Amino acid sequence: MIRKSHVSLLAAAVLSAVATQAQAGFTYDLRFSDDTKSKAAAVGTYTLTLWGKISGDTNYGNDFWNNGYVNVGSTQVGGGAIATGGVTNGAPVAPANVGSGAGTISQLVTAYGISDWGYSSTASTGSSSVAGMLFWRTGTAPGIAGGNPSPVTQGHAIDANTWEYPLATYTVSINTLGVGAATNFNVILPSANVRSGTSTLPVILYSFDGGAATTNNGTSLDNVTIGSPVQFVGDVPEPASLGVLGLGALALFARRRRSA
User: Which domain holds residue 94?
Assistant: First the structure.
């Protein structure tokens, strides 16, 4: 039986995903490897896939994925379903793992005892160092076009206006469980253009509907959205169940008093 707390969290994720899909432009969407958004938290290892969607007109071939920098961070809901663990690995995947500079250049940071993947200064209003962020790159100019469903790219249509490609995979390990409602993971974009030495680099570079390349920085992310988070849902008792447990405890206390 699915608990009410699980249903409400799942419904919120679905509504958020539907709202995001309707927007034009580029969308980062983090999902489990089986394309789901939510799982019951249990000790073990899980694989997440980061997808990049471009929505526009019905011509997938005039949309292009070029490169971008991303972080993945956690949030605890109601105390969190994960007590220890978090993201333990992250790497770009085909078709976004080619070209100079693409690779696993990320570092672990910690929030709430949970390991995140990315640079720790994502909240800064200034430029952020490129060190620590995951960098995906297709290695082509202006980028890889939509409409290429080959086994290598794993790209596919979402609807008549939207195509997506996988960009990266992450490994999440749960070592011990929490007692809260949920632990969420999602993309966190740098708050400003990232820096590599003296060079300033765009947070993301793409184009859609045959237009000019959209060079976005963290203070002006035009037409870039982030999908709903991945959720690890805790086994939170329903209020009715808590009431039954409370009555049981009172009955046991009364019985012990009579025995005394």
Answer: 4-259
Q: Is 227 exposed, middle or buried (0-12, 13-18, 19+ CB in 10 A)?
A: buried
Nearest to 51 by CA among 16, 105, 95, 101: 95
Q: 3-state DSSP: the chain helix, strand, coil percent, rounded to 5?
A: 15, 45, 40
- 102 against 28, higher pLDDT: 28
Q: 113 vs 192, which has greater pLDDT?
A: 113
Instruction: Work out whether the CA dihedral 219, 225, 231, 237 comes out positive or negative.
Output: positive
Write a three-state SS string for 69-136.
EEEEEEEEECCCCEEEEEEEEEEECCCCECCCCCECCECEEEECCEEEECCCCCCCCCCEECCECEEE
Question: What distance in Å separates the CA atoms of residue 213 and residue 248, rounded to the nearest whole number?
Answer: 65
Give the pLDDT of residue 124: 36
- Per the structure, the count of domains in the chain is 1
Q: Quote the DSSP letter at residue 224.
A: E
Distance, in Å, from the CA atom of 222 to the CA atom of 227, rounded to the nearest integer, reads 15
Distance of CA 112 to the CA centre of its chain: 17
Angle 50-171-135 from CA coordinates, rounded to 5°: 50
Lowest mean pLDDT among 41-50, 95-104, 133-142: 95-104
pLDDT digits (tens, 9 = 90+) for 132-153: 778 899 987 889 999 988 888 8
Query: What does the block give as tokens for 11?
Result: 């419904």
Please report where in the chains the tokens 């995979």 appear, as a residue.
169
Residues 6+ apart with CB under 8 A from 61: 145, 146, 147
